[in-house]
Write a structure and sequence with these properties.
Number of strands of chain A: 4
Order of helices and strands of chain B: HH
Distance between the termini of chain A: 63 Å
Low-confidence stretches of chain B: 59-68
Largest sheet of chain B: none
Shape of chain A: elongated
Radius of gyration of chain B: 24 Å
Shape of chain B: rod-shaped
Mean pLDDT of chain A: 89
Number of domains of chain A: 1
Order of helices and strands of chain A: HHEEHHEE
Structural class of chain A: mainly alpha
Low-confidence stretches of chain A: 15-22
Helix content of chain B: 55-70%
Number of strands of chain B: 0
Helix content of chain A: 55-70%
Oligomer: heterodimer
Strand content of chain A: 5-15%
Radius of gyration of chain A: 21 Å
Number of domains of chain B: 1
Mean pLDDT of chain B: 76
């Protein structure tokens, strides 16, 4: 008798944790603010991708992008390049912040950023430049 | 709850309820921790969209043999 009560309590515990698993399975990323940032970044990617390939722009360890070597860019175009990097980083920082906020935990921003930092680097195409732990650059 | 049910059944139902409540209450605490796996999944989805990658894959094209 007592044993079956314990069994039932365990089943209840399992039911409870299954619900929790569903609730934790996904982060909310389908908000208008996040959608706008994704669209903006996707559009900008068309302009940035050649700079990833040439090594002008690299992926930093903190989930942003940086000018790694501007020598291939004519002087006259360098301010445009800086503006491109600045705009991309503004969007990325806003994205990390918005994801944390959309999930009710603004304090998660740093961890969201760290997660993205790793995944951007993991998914970087061969030939792109990524920042190492020692801040030096390495080509994938 | 089941006022006419035999006592063992009632104890069982109470135990089931207790177990569910305890674990559900636990979730509130657990949720304070950063859901790393979910964040990774969300990051992948967003990166695949921004970089226009095939779903569920990295950018490393399988066709050209990974020799890096």
């Amino acid at each position: 008798m007592r044993r079956s009560a314990i069994h039932l309590a365990l089943i209840g515990a399992l039911l409870g944790s299954a619900g929790q698993g569903l609730a934790q399975g996904n982060l909310e990323i389908d908000t208008p603010a996040i959608a706008a940032l994704r669209a903006s970044m996707q559009q900008r990617h068309q302009q940035i991708v050649s700079h990833y390939e040439s090594g002008t722009i690299g992926l930093t360890r903190d989930g942003l992008v940086a000018i790694r070597d501007a020598s291939q860019v004519p002087l006259a175009q360098r301010s445009r390049l800086s503006a491109l990097v600045a705009a991309e980083n503004r969007d990325r920082e806003a994205l990390y912040r918005e994801i944390a906020r959309a999930n009710g935990h603004p304090e998660w921003g740093g961890q969201v950023q760290a997660t993205f930092a790793q995944r951007w680097i993991d998914k970087a195409r061969r030939g792109w430049w990524v920042q190492q732990a020692d801040k030096g650059w390495a080509q994938r | 709850m089941l006022p006419s049910a035999p006592i063992p059944l009632r104890i069982g139902a109470a135990a089931l309820l207790l177990g569910t409540i305890l674990v559900s209450a636990g979730c509130v605490t657990i949720n304070i921790y950063f859901p790393a796996a979910a964040a990774e999944k969300a990051a992948d989805r967003i990166i695949e969209g921004v970089w226009q990658l095939p779903k569920g894959q990295g950018a490393q094209a399988p066709a050209d043999g990974d020799t890096r």
